[in-house]
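assembly run, all chains below
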Amino acid sequence: MYDLLTSDRANTTCKVAAFSGPRWAQPDHFWEENMTLSDKEVKLIEAYERHGRADLAHCVKNARIHQLLFGSFDDDKFLYTTYKSKKFMSCRHAMKSVFEPDSTPEAITIQQWDMEMERKYEGDEGLAIVRELDQRQLETRSRSDIVYPLQRVMRRSWKCCRKITGRT
Amino acid sequence: MPGSPGHNLDELSPQQLDRFIDTYALEAIKLSSVKFVAVGGLCLDNAGAITVGSLVDTRFCNGPDSNHLGGPFKSTRDQYLYQIEASLSAIKAGMLFRLAPLRAYLAHLEVRDLILDCAALAEEEPEFYLKHRDGTADNILLDESGAVTALLDWEW
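ok done. output:
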């Protein structure tokens, strides 16, 4: 017995993406560094081959590009790690290794990457707008840095007052 | 419909896990016979027939129609490029990646170039297939033997 429920918004995609190893089969955090097939993906490949579907086994073996891109837009993966620089560089390394498997890995820091990309995309018409947004965000963050120590002092004072008055 | 959802697959016995994977493969094989002519989200046309329409993007859910993100597309490459452009526009408008817009914008530009240069994504795709957008075990019903009895929540 088998059912597909609430399929009103299911999406369609190419064969390799559709029959790639689903989330339950993927290695943990593969988009950060571990690009090898998981044990569950290997078992899924074996199952497809056992049932005479080498074409679907091929999809599981060759789907990392789609899994990375799919994850980039739908989940908390590669493109959503840009706030966390250390994680971002390992995700970027994984992305480059899938798209350009023959290229030599670049040992660059995130600061070097920032500079290189700003230089590379200097002519992009949206870059100036985003630089301004980024600058505004930096200024907001530095104002927050002033507020947080003040809150810490106030909390400490409040604890002292409670201790003195004996009120909880 | 028998079965219960939300299994942690690591808690299944080796026999149950083998059964689960084997029955999952069989159901995927059945789904491989259902083909479509474009990339997008499923919807009904005026006559009530299933057709491929706009793709739903859960990042843009602030308005009545704003979670529909373009499409249908002729290829996954077109879909990815459209999604990249949508992200770039949203970053420029201050709607996405508000905490680090510059780095996010540059990352999207770099990924766009990787997609444009990718030979595998440039290959022609004659047919398209259904894909679950949240393929976690939470959306799969199993019976006691580990066999798949249903796949749930295809709307996301």
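Chain B touches chain A through 82 residues (CB under 8 Å).

DSSP finds four helices and five strands in chain B.

not gonna interpret more than that til we talk
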